[in-house]
Design goal:
This protein is an alpha/beta fold. The protein contains eleven helices and eight strands.
């Protein structure tokens, strides 16, 4: 892992890698995860960029928040970027992190020069039936009972259930997932759904004047893989589907994912 500097700003745990004068990349994780989910791609990205990883509120090493509304989280992320004196960043969001990246661009177009979404479902109707283990952990009545006693093995099974390739889940990522509260997770899921139900992600992006890269696993197990092409309607958007890859391209195909992100960021300079 590249050398890292750690700080806390506006209720978010922030980790930075790479030269500060290099073009900034902001990495935003998805629900039930943390900034540690980006670990496999950080070394390649930090060779050429100032990489900023955040733990969203209630995830990883960031404390819970009174609200998990997507625009409100984006506003808090904007405050972090202002605190770091950054602008024209490439905002990269995985899964629901893509919604926060999109909301950030909607609210503060001055902060975002380009936008990359990885495995971000475009609308609620693209959601696939979820694996039984995930449904059991999330839904009442078992969810609230099982959540506090989840084992590391159960957490790993839950994470790999949405993958199509064998992956090695870092111990740190498992530990950080254990710290996420049941109520937090349920609320985050509701707020994410509300954001994309109000207006689909492609519709939101079509109203923005920003280059967009969409990376989607062709074997995604959370979102219908063909829904990636809903983004074809977005001007200035390119869609890349990764054969044999599931919902976690950063863990399932880190080299290819980093290569696509680097090429996209280089084209924006």
């Amino acid at each position: 892992m590249a050398h890292e500097d750690v700080t806390h700003l506006h209720g978010m745990h922030v980790v930075r890698h790479g030269p500060r004068q290099a073009p900034p990349l902001v990495l935003i994780h998805g629900s039930g995860s943390s900034g540690g989910s980006w670990a496999p791609v950080v070394p390649a990205l930090a060779d050429r960029h100032h990489v900023i990883r955040v733990d969203l509120p209630g995830h990883g090493q960031s404390p819970p928040s009174p609200s998990y509304d997507v625009p409100e989280q984006a506003d808090r992320l904007a405050a972090v970027l202002d605190g770091l004196a950054l602008d024209r960043v490439t905002a990269i969001g995985h899964s629901s992190g893509g919604y926060i990246a999109t909301a950030l661009t909607e609210q503060r177009p001055d902060l975002v020069g380009s936008l990359a979404l990885i495995s971000s479902g475009p609308s609620p109707d693209a959601l696939l039936p979820q694996p039984a283990l995930l449904r059991m952990l999330i839904a009442p009545p078992l969810g609230p009972l099982l959540w506090p006693i989840r084992s590391d093995a159960m957490l790993r099974r839950g994470m790999t259930a949405v993958c199509n390739r064998p992956v090695d889940i870092p111990d740190k990522l498992v530990a950080e997932a254990r710290g996420i509260g049941y109520r937090t997770f349920r609320t985050v899921l509701r707020q994410n759904t509300a954001y994309i139900a109000e207006r689909s992600v492609p519709e939101r992006l079509a109203a923005l004047d920003v280059p967009v890269l969409v990376i989607f696993g062709a074997a995604d197990r959370r979102w219908e893989p063909s829904s990636a092409h809903h983004y074809d309607t977005v001007p200035n958007a390119r869609v890349e589907q990764l054969p044999g890859v599931g919902h976690l391209p950063m863990l399932e195909a880190p080299d290819l994912t980093a290569e696509l992100l680097l090429a996209f960021a280089a084209a924006r300079r």
